[in-house]
Each structure stands twice: as C-alpha cells, then as structure tokens.
Write a structure and sequence with these properties.
heterodimer, A: mainly alpha, 12 helices, B: alpha/beta, Rossmann fold, Alpha-Beta Plaits, six-stranded mixed sheet, four-stranded antiparallel sheet, 14 strands
Chain lengths: ~260, ~325
C-alpha cells in the first residue's frame, strides 16, 4: 500500500473515532450483556443458540449501519465541504484517494467487529457458566469473519455510489443491494425456474448483486455445524474479487468527475 | 522557463437536469506567468477566476485547451509536489487540530518525516497560529481558518503558490499580514498566482495582473501599464452650494459638502470648466490631478465607467498586452 493511501486511510479512521462512531460499542456491550442475562432466565437449553443468533445479528446490523452511513459520505462529503480540493491538489491520484477511504472505513469496521466479538464471547461465556463452552463455539469466529467480508463489500458499494450520487440516493442504493443480496440464493433458485427473457434477466440480476446469503452462516453456527474449508476460500475470493470490481468502477467514475 | 503557461484553456458546463444546455464559464484563455512573479487574477464574482484555478489544480477538467505549470502537465505528480493551493473559503477536517492537519497534508505532499515537525512549527509561526496549534479546527474563526489554509499551501515549500481570494474573511490586520506573507514568498523566489476582487490588494502587491469578466480575459499587464490607458482626470473644488450652468455637461461626478462643491472631470475639460466657474464668480479652492487607479481601469473594462478612451489603442501605445475577445 502506498504511503499516501495509508495516510488517507488513517485519517478516515481517525474521523470515525473522533466523530464518536465507535461509541455504538458501548450500546452494543450493554445490549448483549443485558440480553445474555435475560436469555439465561427465560430460555431453557437454547440460551447458547439465542445468544449466538442475537449477538451475530447485532454485530451484522451495527456494522451495516456504520458501513452505509459513513460510506455514503466518504466522497460526497469531501466534495460538498471542499476538503477534497486541498487533497487532490497534492500529488495524490484519485484512485489513491478512493483506496485510502476504503481502507480507512474497512479498518474502522474491523476494529468495531473485533470489539463486538469480545461482547459476543462474553455473553457466550456467561450462558456457559451453567452449560460449559463448546468447541463448536469457535465457529462463531468464522461467522464473524464472513460478516467482515460482507462489510468489505458494503463499504465498496457505498463508496461506489458516493462517487457519483447524493448521500441519500447512495444510502438507498446500497441498502437495496444489501437486501436483494441477502436473498440472492433464492433469486438464483427462482432464475432456474424462470424461462425465456425473464429467466435471462433474473439470472443476470442474481449474479450481479452481491451474494450476501452465502456469507451468512449464523444459522449453521448457532446449531454448532461447521463449514467446509472450500467455502471459506470461495467466499474470501468472491468478496475480494467483487470488492475490487466495485472499487475499480468507483475509480473509473471518480476519475472523470469534475468537482464543481 | 515560465511558471504557468495557459493555452486556449476553456470551460463549458452543462446545466439543467433534463434538458442539458451549455453554460460557458471561461472563453479560450491564453496567459503566461513568469517565475518569481506575483500575479493577480482579478474579476468580479462569477468572472471565471475560480474555474480557471480549479482547472489548473486538476479539480475541473477543461473543455478544450491545455496548461503547464513549471513545464509539467497538470496531472503530473511531480508538478503537484511543487505547488501549493488555497481554495476559496477553505474548509478543513474540523475534527483535527492545526498541527494534525498540517502533518497530514505534509505527508500527502511527501515532506520528509524528520523535517515534518519543524516545518509545521515554522509555518504555524509564520501565519501567527502558534497559540492555536493544538486546538481543533471546529473552534477556529473564519480568519484563523484562512490562515491555516495559507499554512497548508506553503507547508511543503512549493515553487508556485495559488491562492483563491486569500484576503477573504480577514480583518485589516490579517490582510496586512497576508500581504506581507505574499511579499515574503516573492522574496524567496516563489511565484504567487492569486485571485481577488479586492483591487487595492492587487495594486499594492502584484507585478502584473489579468482582468477577467464574464469568462473573458479583458486585459493583462503591469498595473501602471494598464492604468496608463485610462483617461486622466482632475478634481476641482470651489466654494458654493450649486453647479454653475453648463458645468454639469463637463463633469463625471459631483459631490456637495457643506458650502463647498467637488467635481471630478476629464483633464481636457479642465480649462472649459475653469472658464465657467470664473464667469459664475465662484471662488476656486483647488484643482488636483486624480491618480488613475487599478479600480478605474477595472471598472472601465467592466463597462461601468466610460472614462477609458480606447482600451485597444491605449494598450498598443504602452507595452502592456491588452486582449479583447469578441464572444463567439
């Protein structure tokens, strides 16, 4: 990574920290601790399942909100406030700016997820005081890794839309893609049943939207099931390739944009 | 080598949502700024000054034409490492302190990490912000932001400094300090290209100026060369409270103050006006030549003062290059 990308990424991370984005972690910790105590009292024998579901879904939602609401402003806010002028008038290439912003927000989300993961494991530890920790609980780490991969794609998408449209539209587009992408396996199944032009169209949409459903293994992990190593490699490669393609698109658009 | 060479640079924006229509922000512009010059780029609001600067900075892409800075293309990173830029009404990352902001910009400009701290300290001292060095920018006044903007523009010791309305938002003392700073940059051998609509600053500072209006270059040259083309005027003061008959046809403007009258008129009308005053029995107090200012020239170019005889002819007589473009 070039030094300029690193500096822009560090500044983006610092902005998130100074804007108190990471304060959501306190809310998250309180929520999970409270939920674990509550779950311990009202559920019989399924405390572990509920804590894993609740914890990982909360990690996913908190991260999604941060990725979208910071991501959509990464470029447009810099243009609106004209802070970009003093950056791009230096020896900084536009693609370096996009890459720096991407790594900065991704870094913020990774730190965020790591902190929230501690909360999830503390809640799991609490419920396991009565039922010992299981070896399969380690799969929670893999689910968290897949959630981070989702954040990486969402950040790239938010950045892509932010490079040419308003924050509101960027938020709508990104969230819509997240929702559609979460049902992409269903969409692919539906495409197999459809015929003719509609079949082609649905197949195209199903393969263009990000496949978030493949990156969601919360159910499996909750039930203590493992994941095949091929899936880990496949999901990792898929997320990286998809992210690179989206970032390349963002750079192509931003490279041609005049900053009025 | 010229510091800045602009060749037929023009910009046409597309405006409108559904039915796009062209809006010309800058007609083809030719301009050369020599190294070591303080060059003023003057014009009223909406003249095309900021558009020109944004094109030079690579923020806006020209519709046609080209430009080179220090002999290098506008997208050349080697060129960008040697220039500094202060945008109009600058806004910076307000969650950073002045020191953090300057370190960030210094790193992006490739300033050596070992020199960075001393550079930042020196530049903060130069813009009189040492006391606010560790204050977050969200607590800065408009004038302080302008100073930090100038600091980031000169931090990496650039050869050419572009300042868009550098005096904007500053009190008289601040303006004086910025003027001193710009003169200091010239003394260090740097080229300063700044846009402004405050003509007194340009007149006091610039080796040469260019005037743009409605996207067209109206004139370029040294201030004294440009103002030489403006018709000489005299100020006449006499005792009285009214204008003698016939004199109003000769004067450009009149002012009454107590029991004295003051009139500004072209120098060639001076004798005729004195005759009229004598015949009316008025007591003459003074006749003083009016120094032709850049403002007179500027207003003449904007068509708001008819006292310019013939701009093109005047420029031919002097060494100033005066360009007038007809609208295509």
């Amino acid at each position: 990574m070039s030094a300029r990308i690193r500096h822009i990424a560090a500044n983006t991370f610092r902005e998130a920290v100074r804007d108190r984005v990471l304060y959501n972690l306190i809310a998250f910790a309180l929520l999970l601790t409270g939920a674990a105590v509550l779950v311990g009292q009202i559920s019989i024998n399924i405390e572990r399942l509920v804590v894993i579901h609740l914890g990982l879904t909360a990690v996913s939602l908190f991260g999604l909100v941060i990725a979208i609401f910071i991501g959509i402003g990464l470029v447009s806010k810099e243009i609106d406030k004209r802070t970009l002028y003093t950056v791009l008038s230096r020896p900084v290439k536009r693609w370096e700016f996009i890459a720096g912003k991407f790594f900065g927000l991704t870094g913020t989300l990774v730190v965020n997820t790591l902190c929230m993961a501690v909360g999830v494991f503390l809640a799991l530890w609490y419920v396991s005081l009565r039922h010992q920790m299981l070896a399969s609980d380690a799969w929670v780490l893999l689910a968290l890794y897949f959630i981070v991969l989702q954040f990486v794609i969402i950040t790239a998408l938010a950045l892509f839309f932010s490079s040419f449209s308003s924050p509101l539209l960027s938020a709508v587009f990104t969230f819509s893609l997240f929702v559609i992408g979460s049902f992409s396996e269903d969409l692919r199944g539906f495409a197999k049943m459809a015929h003719g032009m509609a079949g082609w169209l649905i197949t195209a949409v199903a393969y263009i939207v990000p496949n978030f459903s493949a990156l969601n293994i919360i159910n499996q992990v909750g039930q203590g099931q493992g994941v095949a190593p091929q899936l880990i490699a496949y999901n990792t490669a898929y997320a990286l390739v998809y992210t690179l393609a989206v970032l390349a698109g963002a750079t192509l658009i931003f490279d041609r944009r005049s900053l009025k | 080598m010229a510091a800045i060479e602009i060749l037929q640079l023009e910009k046409v924006y597309s405006v409108g949502f559904w039915r796009k229509r062209p809006k010309r922000a800058l007609y083809p512009l030719d301009l050369v700024v020599e190294e070591g010059e303080i060059f003023g780029f003057l014009g009223p609001n909406g003249a095309g000054k900021t558009t020109t600067l944004k094109m030079l900075m690579g923020l806006v892409f020209p519709t046609a034409g080209s430009a080179r800075i220090l002999g290098l293309e506008l997208d050349d990173p080697r060129m960008k490492a040697q220039i500094g830029f202060l945008p109009e009404q600058p806004y910076f990352y307000d969650y950073l302190t002045a020191v953090e902001l300057l370190k960030y910009y210094g790193r992006l400009s490739g300033v050596d990490e070992k020199q960075l701290v001393s550079r930042v300290e020196a530049v903060l001292k130069r813009v009189a912000l040492e006391d606010a060095a560790h204050l977050q920018l969200r607590k800065f006044s408009k004038g302080m932001l302008q100073r930090v903007g100038i600091a980031q523009a000169i931090l990496h010791d650039p050869k050419v400094v572009f300042l868009d309305e550098p005096m904007s938002g500053l009190d008289p003392m601040g303006r004086r300090e910025v003027r001193n700073l710009i003169e200091g940059l010239k003394a260090e051998g740097k080229t300063v290209f700044f846009s402004t609509h405050i003509l007194s600053d340009a007149e006091a500072l610039c080796d040469r100026v260019a005037i743009v209006h409605l996207g067209q270059l109206r004139g370029v040259g040294a201030v004294e060369e440009l103002t030489a083309g403006v018709r000489a005027q005299v100020e006449m003061v006499w005792a009285g409270t009214s204008l003698p008959s016939g004199i109003s046809a000769l004067v450009a403007e009149t002012h009454a103050a107590g029991d004295t009258m003051r009139a500004i008129l072209p120098q060639e009308e001076q004798d005729a006006a004195l005759d009229l005053l004598r015949r009316a029995g008025a007591r003459l107090i003074s006749v003083t030549p009016v120094r032709t200012s850049l403002e007179d020239y500027f207003l003449a170019q904007l068509g708001r003062n008819p006292s310019l005889d013939n701009p093109t002819e005047s420029a031919k007589e002097g060494s100033a290059q005066l360009t007038t473009f007809g609208k295509p």
